[in-house]
Amino acid sequence: EVPVWDIADKFGDETTLLVTNMAQGRDLATCLDCNRLALMRGHGFVCVGRSINDLVRLSVFIPRNARVMMNAMRMGEFISLSRGEVEARLKLDTESPALKRGWEFWAREAGVGHLLED
Predict the structure, then answer these.
(1) 69: left (phi > 0), else alpha (psi -120 to 50), else beta?
(2) Among 9, 19, 33, 57, which is disulfide-ready with 24 (CB 3.0 to 4.6 Å)?
(3) What is the pLDDT of residue 118?
């Protein structure tokens, strides 16, 4: 289950759909609770990571995975990951060589690969 945050629920429908003050930020954080992702009605999603590396990885793969999931659901029966599969995935080391390669790729693509050099 992914929580959905609707800024209009608490702050009215005259908002820009953007979090622009502390009260809105706190309300969104309350919606996130212990989750790493929340959908924002009319404005995409927000995610949190354990590190900047983790956050960038999530930001890249959440939309990709959502498209794959939506396409799979259109094809028929869809079986989502079990709680155990999700928990096993969360235990992966974000500093593993495999995940670091992705981070290095994104840094180079963003033009800041030089910041990774010792």
Answers:
(1) alpha
(2) 19
(3) 63
